[in-house]
Protein 1
Amino acid sequence: MALIRLTPRQEKIIEIVKGSGPITSEQIAKQLNLTRATLRPDLAILTMSGILDARPRVGYFYTGKTANAVLAEEIRRFRVKDIKSVPVVIKEETSVYDAIVTMFIEDVGTLIVVSEGGFLEGVVSRKDLLKVTIGQNDPKQVPVGVAMTRMPNIVTTTLEETVFMAAQKIIEHQVDALPVVRKFVKEDGKEKLEVVGRITKTNITQLFVELGEGK
Ligand code: ADP
């Protein structure tokens, strides 16, 4: 999939630089029968995107990177900590009714279930809550503990992980959100995961939009 679309003239410039680089902008202009001024914006785009590089008094040369490789590199630079949201957490004993109310108030589709101290115990989604409420259950009496997906089956991410990796996990496991966690060793030596954030499809869509806007 071609993610960066270059103009025919930009493609031609790349071919010339590939074949005869290092080459000055004057020489490129000559080969194309254009003026240097006309070429300037194209050369700016090609150097800014990392496809060409320029050395003073030497000229332009091809970096060997394709436009897509440059874009991929750029995308993989973002980390979960750059775009995460605050986690919306509840306790396992919370009623299904209160969990639904929390979803509405906080405007989220995934609640993270934690134990005392903010440690990850599970995740409860909209459909998890729908499922228990269509049974013969009183949502005020049933705790989310019966509806949630539990550890160790929770797919998580960390602050330093790339957004790209987190997005891959979301697609692979077909979930809407990942708790962002940090390893924590309790006094008894047991390892727990402290919940420090939440990353959702919305965060990633937002990043996509901002990238598209050139921010
Ligand atoms: P919904 O069920 O509302 O479509 P999801 O697609 O996020 O929302 O959830 C699908 C199932 O996966 C649910 O049973 C939910 O408990 C579970 N789930 C959601 N997020 C995670 C996660 N990060 N790790 C493991 N399971 C998850």
Protein 2
Amino acid sequence: MNVQPIDRLDLSDQRVFIRADFNVPLEDGRVTDDTRIRRTLPTIQHALKEGAHPLILASHLGRPEGSPRPAYALAPVSRRLSELLGQTVVQAEDCAGTTVEKQIAAMGRGEVLLLENLRFHPEEKKNDPDFARALARLADIYINDAFGTAHRAHASTYGMASLVSRRGMGFLMQEEIAQLERLRHDPAAPFLVILGGAKVAGKIGVIQHLLDRADVFLIGGAMAYTFMRARDEKTGRSKIESDEVDLAREIIEASVEKNVLLLLPTDHVVTANDDSQAAGCVVRQIPENMCGVDIGPRTITGYSAEIEKAATIFWNGPMGIFENEAFATGTRSVARAVAEASAFSVIGGGDSVAAVRQFDLSGGIGHISTGGGASLAFLESRTLPGLDALAA
Ligand code: ADP
Ligand code: MG
């Protein structure tokens, strides 16, 4: 694909529009994890150094459902970004329209404006052509660095791109694609995939795709119970996605056919109530009235041994309800094994990445993706709407 990286474009005295992914967690008007902002800094700093006039930043934040809700305003992001950049980031009151256009026209070289939350307008998610045109009017050069949103064809990630004559990708987008390409193109064997978390439905496509590439699958988290149900194993009151049981069965059958080792937990931490603060107990078989909340010690030992042997690892989704310390051992142990493994490892998925950070194990990971859904979509189809739209 022919997409220009930002450093091949002449930005000097141009209105440079960067679509970033500043969808960060907030608490009491403060950014509690600024990773996504920090990961965009190289692109922002490059644009400033190269004389953007001015630099215009845009992002969505949360799910304001198409109306301007103060709780989703981007002011906490512009404040944090000002601190990180050491220069004032002006917060706009809207993301398009004549007021914003005038504000941009009055700005100088090297100044930075952060547009207000794109999703305050319902047209953003609908990829509305008029809204895309209104955004495109603000820019001479369009840069997409929002990898975490690149699997969505929205006005700011898709529609506006072709309406701006010069366009390209930022350094974060470039880095994400390059690292994920390593998993797609001849990954060193054994290629191990660790899957967990809650949403089997959203991950089926990528599992089917990876069955053709990976050598071993380790399944954990709530996802494991849907697979166990497909194997007619006892799952008690564990969280199951009943609609996905047939697909899980097909995946198990395909794994046998394709000679892929697909492992399910052989013991479990269970509790009578999945949000109870009480410590769980370890069982081989899940009793009728209990639900699984973490993988057990025997599973941890088996999974860790596979992880140690792997040459390439992709991990998405925690092994248990790690938000509760009593049920975090499985996720922590797997995270430690991945961090200590000699394999090239990639982690994608909001919660899995949060877990690895919480355990302070990010240092041992090859690549930590800023996009959960986007990394899965890219692995599955090798392209993303937001990337396609940048093609020259
Ligand atoms: P990611 O964001 O890494 O892609 P998901 O969003 O799919 O992962 O899943 C993360 C969620 O799955 C976490 O909130 C975690 O508590 C939950 N989860 C993991 N294991 C279980 C389980 N056994 N039962 C219920 N929920 C679980
Ligand atoms: Mg998640």
